[in-house]
Amino acid sequence: MYKLDLPIDKKEFEAIEARRQRELQRQSRIFNAKVRSIGIDLQAVQEQERDRRMREEMERRRHEAYAADMVRNDKISQLLQKRQEADIRRLNKARDQYRIMHQQPNTRREFDLYDPDSLKKDKPARVHDDDPRCTLSSMQKFEGEDLNNPARKKLQQEQMREWAKQQAEERQKAEDKKRRADMLYDKKQIELDNRAMELQKAETACRRAITTAQANYNKALSDEVNNQKELDKRRETDDKLTEIANHVHGDFLTENPNISTSAFGPHRVIPDRWKGMLPDQIAEIRKTQKVQEDERKEREEHERKENEEWEKQANQNARAGMVLEREQGRQIRNRNKEVAKENLNLAFEQKAHKEFLDKQVYINPPTAAYFQQFNTITR
């Protein structure tokens, strides 16, 4: 009925294939985040690239500066090392020159022990020319032979005598010195003892004089104290008698009413002189107190009546408040019932609406294939 084996147009096929290849290339450019250029902030990328290059340039310059600093430090260390080596060579040269000039081997004390020409410099045992034993072909000295023994013994004896004589003289000088020192020490001890005795005598006399003077002073002081006590006792007795007479004949004991009047007014008194109120003053005070008591009772009665009125008003307000509260409670309960009824109707309506959406509107939920068709092409 339909011809399905028609030949395919080559140009059309090439065009379709070209579009397919371009689409694949475009997908690779768009869907690959690493090489994607569409949807990227090119200015920000360029600024990041420029910042990266600047950091790399700064890092390169820092490394070059560090390298130059290291090269300079190496050169300085090499110069210092060369200078140190030159100083060491100069010191060694000066030391060798000093040794050559002032420390020759022949100037040493033990040079005769390792002198290579010691045998050539050695002299024969007898140095006299007329000694028949010292011919040109004769032996000069035998092993163990001591030709200078008599002279050496004589020299040793003289030396021992000199040493003994010197020791005796030194011993005699030491004894004389010790004897003079002992004599001087004894004289010094005697002098110190005499001086100590004189000082002790002077100290005893001084103490005796001080004791006598102190005793005289204490006696005079005791007499003065006794006289002062007697004078104070007499003055105290006179003062007491005078005070007793003043109290006996004074206004305090005589109860003079005029002495209690104060200088600040006739209504004020001096507390330490006041002897009490007069009968007229007491009666006036009692009268004033009676008036104050009557006023207090009248004021208390007035306050009591006022409090009763306030309590009555408070009770009326409390009863009115209870009635108002009951009315408000009745209205709140009625309103809560209406709200509950309205909420129940709303719940039924929402449930019916949800059933309508679930059973009639949302009857074709999207599957995974629906979401997979997105983001498949670049157009």
Question: Which tags fit this structure?
Answer:
379 residues; mainly alpha; two-stranded antiparallel ribbon
Strand order of the largest sheet: 1-2
Which class of secondary structure composition applies to the elements? mainly alpha
**Beta strands, count:** 2
Biggest sheet features: 2 strands, antiparallel
Helix-strand topology string: HHHHHEEHH
Poorly predicted tracts of residues:
none
Mean pLDDT score, rounded?
82
Termini, distance in Å? 37 Å
Beta strand % = under 5%
The total of helices stands at: 7
* Shape category: flat
Roughly how much helix do the residues carry, as a percent range?
over 70%
Gyration radius, rounded: 72 Å
Summarize the structure.
This protein is mainly α and 379 residues long. The protein is built from 7 helices and 2 strands; from the N terminus they run H-H-H-H-H-E-E-H-H. It has a domain of 80 residues.
Structure, explained:
With 379 residues, this protein is mainly α. The chain has a domain of 80 residues. Helix content is 74%, strand content 2%. The chain has a two-stranded antiparallel sheet with strand order 1-2. A hairpin with a 2-residue loop joins strand 1 and strand 2. The longest helix is centred in the middle third of the chain and has 101 residues. The two termini are 37 Å apart.
What secondary-structure arrangement, pairings included, does this model have?
Elements: H1 10-31, H2 42-102, H3 118-121, H4 149-249, H5 251-254, E1 261-262, E2 265-269, H6 279-361, H7 368-372
Antiparallel strand pairs: 1-2
